[in-house]
Amino acid sequence: MIATDSTRASTAVELTIATPEGVLFRLPLASPASRLYAVLLDMVIVLGTVNAIGMLVYLVFAKVPGFGVMVITLGEFAIGFAYGALMEGFWNGQTIGKRLFHLRVIDQTGLPLRIEQAWVRNLMRVFDALPFAYLVGGISALSSPLMQRFGDRVAGTLVVRQTPLAVPGEESWTRQKYNSFMEYPAIAVHLRRSATPEIASLIEDALRRRNELAPYARREIYREMAKYLQSEISPFPDELVERLSDEQYLINASGILFGERRSSRVQG
Amino acid sequence: MILNLERFQAQARPRWNALESLLVGLEGRPDRRLNPAEAQQLQDLYARAATDLNRVTHGALAPELRQYLERLVARAYAELYYAPPTRSEVWQPRRWLRIFRAFPESFRRQSRYFALAVLVTVLGCTLGGIAVYYDPASVDVLLPADYLRNPDERVHQEEQGQGRHFGSTQTEAAFSAQLIRHNIEVALLAAAMGVTFGIGTALLLFENGVLLGAVAVHYTQRGFGLFMTAWLLPHGAFEIPSILIAGQAGFYLARLLLRRREDRNLRQSMREWLVLVAGLAMMLVWAGIMEAFFSQHHAPVLPYGFKVTVAAAELSLLTIYLLLVGRGETGAQARLGVPSESR
User: Fold this and answer.
1) How sure is the predictor about B260, in pLDDT bands with cuts at 50, 70 and 90?
2) How far is the CA of A31 from the CAs of A94, A99, A132, A159, A161, in angstroms?
C-alpha cells in the first residue's frame, strides 16, 4: 500500500491544457521509471525481431556470410531507430512497450505527435542514452517541469500516462425511501443553504468509498463528519440523532443535499 | 452549485459513451480523417463533454469522474484540432525521393553553420598539426591507436598486404557495415549535441580536427604523405564532409534552441534538421563502402595516383551536388514540403 502511494506521489506531475473553448484539462505525465521499463521492453522486442530476421538472413546468405553480417549489422541499426519513430508516428504515439505500460507520446500542446517529431525524438536517443541506461535523458527529465528528456525538448513532445479508465459506476446509497431529516424542514433547508460544495462532496465521497475504508477508519471518519455537521451546521434534535448511526446520519444529510425532489417537498 | 452526481451521470452517460465509441473508431483509422457528419457529431459531443467536465470540476469532489472526463475531453480535443498528414504525404515514394534535392538545399540554406563547423575543425587541425610538428613526442598523447603512431611499420605492413586482414570481399562487406554504423552513430551524436548549446558539437569537431591534423603532419614528416592521402582520402572525401555537416546540424539545432520560443517554427526547423541528418547518413553509407572495399588496397594492387584521382573525382562530384542541385528550380515552398503547413 505504501509503495503504491509513493509512486502516485512521485508521478503526480501533470500538464494542464487550456483549449480555445476555455476548457481546462489535466494530463498526467509519465514517470521516468515507467518510461525506462517501456524502453527496455522495446529493446527486447527489437533484438528479438532482429535476431529472428538474422537467422533468415544467414540462411539466405549461407554462401556469402560476410554479406549476411553486413545486412544484419545495418538492419539492426536501422530497425533500432525506425522502430520507435515509425511506431510512434503511425500508432498514435505508442510503441509496443509504451502501450503495455500505458504510456503515450503526444505533442506538448496536447495534440497527437507528428511523424517528424517522432523521428527527431528517436534520433536524439543517441544523446539521451549516454553514458549508459539513459542517464542524460533521465536527469533531463527529472529537471524538466514537463518530464522531458532532451529528445522531447527538441521535438516539443512529452510522454503522458494513460491508464484505462471506466465511467465510475452508479451508486445505490442515495436511493432511500424514507429520510427522517425531512420531518424537520427548517433545519433541512438550513443545511442545504449553508453546506459548501466541498463539504457536500466530502460527505458523498466518504459514503461512496464506504467499502474501501477499513471498518475502524470508516467509523472514525463518519463519526467526525456527523459530529461536525451536527454541531457546526445543522443541529437536528437530539432525540432523532441518538437513534441514528453516524453513517445513517450522513446518508440522510446527503439525501437532503443532493435530492432535489425531496428538498422541494421540504420547501413546499 | 452542488451537483447531484448520480442523476447527472445517469443523464450524461449515453453521450459520453457515444463520444467514446466515436473516438475509438477515429483513433483506429490510420489517416484519421473525419467526414462532415462525423466532424459535426464530434464537435457537439466534445462541447457537451467539456461542459460536463467544467461542472464536475467546480460542482463536486469526484476525482474518478473528473479524471474520466478529462481523458475523454483530451482525446476529443486531439482529434478535433489535429491536422493529420495526407495519405499522399506519407506513402508516396516520390515524395521520399525528394530528399536527394532537399538535402543540398537545406545544406545551402544553413551554410553559415557549416562554415562554423569548418572553422572549429580547422582550428583543431591546426593545433594538432602544430603540436606534432614542434613536439613529435606529443604523438603519443594525441594519437590513440598504436598503428597511427608508427607509420613506417604500418605502411610496410599495408603494402606487403600483411596488415590487411581484409582478405576477401566477405570480410570487407562485414567491415564496411561496422564502419557505416559507427560513423553514423558518431555523426548523429554530433548533430544531437546541439542541445548542449553546441558545446558538445564543437568539442567533438575540435577533437576530430586535432586527430586529423596530427595524423596528417606525422605521416607527412615521415615521408608517407602520398600513401596517407591515398589511404584516407577515397573515403575521407565523403566522411570528413559528412562529419562537418553533422556539426552544421548540431549548430543549427543549438541556434534554434537559443531563439525565443515564439520565433521558432518548430515543424519546419525539425524537417531541416532531419533532412541534414538523413543526407549525411547517405553520405556515410558511401564512405563506409569505399573505406572497406577501396581504401584498404595499396600500391601494387591499386596505384596511389589512381586512388588520389578517384578521391578528387568524388570530392568534386560532392561539391557540385551540394552547391548546384535544386538551385533555382523550385520555389521555397516546394522545397520545404510546406503545402501541408497551409492546411
Assistant:
1) low
2) 16, 15, 19, 9, 8
Helix axes B169-192, B199-221, angle to 10 degrees: 140
d(CA A42, CA A101): 11
A194: contact with B, CB 8 A cutoff: no
Q: Are A246 and A226 in contact (CB under 8 A)?
A: yes
Pick from B213, B266, B259: which is nearest to B240 by CA?
B213
In B, minimum Cα distance to A257 occurs at B2
Quick one: average pLDDT of B271-298? 87
Burial class (CB in 10 A: 0-12, 13-18, 19+), A223: middle
Q: pLDDT band at A261, cuts 50/70/90? A: very low
What residues of chain A, 81 to 110, have a C-beta less than 8 Å from chain B? 90, 92, 106, 110
Q: Distance from B319 to chain A by nearest Cα, in Å?
A: 27
Structural contact between residues A160 and A103, judged by C-beta atoms closer than 8 angstroms: yes
Q: Please name every residue paired with A161 in a beta bridge, in sequence order, or none if there are none.
A: A103
Nearby residues of B12 by Cβ (< 8 Å), 6 or more positions away: B48, B52
- Interface size between A and B, measured as CB pairs under 8 A: 159
Q: How many CA atoms lie within 13 A of B219 on its CB side?
A: 22
Q: Give me the amino acid identity at A48.
A: G
Amino acid identity, residue B343?
R
Per-residue pLDDT for B6 more than 90?
no
B2 vs A110, A162, A257: nearest CB: A257
For A63, the closest chain B residue by CA position comes to B170
Alpha helices in chain B (DSSP H): 5-28, 36-59, 63-81, 87-91, 93-97, 99-109, 111-134, 139-142, 146-149, 151-160, 169-192, 199-221, 225-258, 266-290, 304-324, 332-336
Name the range with the highest mean pLDDT among A1-5, A31-35, A74-78, B186-190: B186-190
> What's the pLDDT at B189?
93
Residue A172 CB burial class (10 angstroms; 0-12, 13-18, ≥19):
exposed
Q: Torsions phi, psi of B197, nearest 5?
A: 60, 25
Contacts of B4 in chain A (CB under 8 A): 258-260
Tell me which chain A residues have a C-beta less than 8 angstroms from the C-beta of B85.
Answer: 114-115
Checking if the pLDDT of B249 tops 80, the result is yes
Query: What distance in Å separates residue B193's CA from the closest CA in chain A?
Result: 7
A17 touches B at CB < 8 Å: yes
| Chain A contact probe: residue of B82, B185, B285 with most A CBs at under 10 A | B82
What ipTM goes with this model? 0.83
Return d(Cα B35, Cα B5) in angstroms, integer.
34
Whether B178 and A73 lie within 8 Å, measured CB to CB: yes
Identity of the amino acid at B338: V
- The C-alpha atoms of residue A19 and residue A148 are separated, in whole angstroms, by 22
Phi, psi torsion values for A25, nearest 5 degrees: -140, 155
Chain B closest CA to A123's CA: distance in Å?
8
Single pTM value for the model: 0.77
Q: Is A25 helix (H, G, I), strand (E, B) or coil?
A: strand
Q: How many residues does chain B have?
A: 343
- Which residues on adjacent β-strands are paired with residue A158? A106
